[in-house]
Amino acid sequence: MSMINVHEKGYVRLVDHMGSDLTVVNAARVSYSKESLELNERDVRLIKFLAQEGHTSPFRHAIAQFEVYAPLMVARQWWKYVVGSAHYEGTGDSLDAWNESSRRYITEEPAFYIPQAGEWRSKPANSKQGSGEPITWELGEKHTRELMAYVELGISKYEAALADGVCAEQARLFLPAYGLYIRWYWTASVQSVAHFLAQRLEDDAQQEIQQYAKAILELIKPIYPVSLEQLI
C-alpha cells in the first residue's frame, strides 16, 4: 500500500524512500568502521540506545518522500515542522524539503474541505485553542450549509475573474483559503518525520491533522519499524 485516503478528498501517498533501520545502525557504527549486513537484536538495542540518549544524527540518513493533498489549514500547521527541523543537535541545516502546487500557475478545479453536520466541534472549555465535544447535529447542519454557500460564492467569483481575463495569481483571492485543498511533496528524514508524528498523533492535536499523521505512520512504519517505535 502506497496511498491512504484522508477525509473525503484528501490523501497521503508514499512516493519514495531511502534506507531502513539498518541504515540507522550502519550510520552510527561507521565511527568504528563497523557494518551490519542484516538487522539483529544487537542492532535493535543500538537503535534504542541512540533514541534514548538523543544521539539523533544516524536517523537523518534514512529518508522518506510523500505527496500530500490536504486543506490549507492542515498544510500550514505541517509547515512548522519543516521550518523548525534544523534545531536538532544544533545542526544548522535541515534535510527537509517542501514543494507545493501554486495557483499562480494552475487553475485546476478548486476542492474544499467541508465538515459534515456531525463533524463540527465546540470550543474547548478550559483552553484558548483546540476543540471540545461535537456540537448538535442540527447546528452542524446549519454551518455545513453556510460554508457550502460561502465556498460556492467564492468559486463563482473566482471563475468570473478568470473569464474576465484576470491573472490566476490574483483571481485566487476570491477562493476561501483555509479549507482549500493544496498538494505538496514533503521529503524528510526519519527523525523529522518521527518528530512530526510525536506531536500530531497526540490526543490534543487538531483532529484533521491527526488523521493525516495516522496515514503517514501507517505508510512508513513497515519500512522503519524499530526506529519509529523508539522515536515516537
From TrEMBL:
It is an enzyme of class 2 (transferase). It comes from the Bacteria. Pfam families: Thy1. One of its GO terms (biological process) is methylation. Keywords: Methyltransferase, Transferase. GO terms for molecular function: thymidylate synthase (FAD) activity. Its EC number is 2.1.1.148. NCBIfam families: thyX. This is FAD-dependent thymidylate synthase. It comes from Paenibacillus spongiae. The gene is thyX.
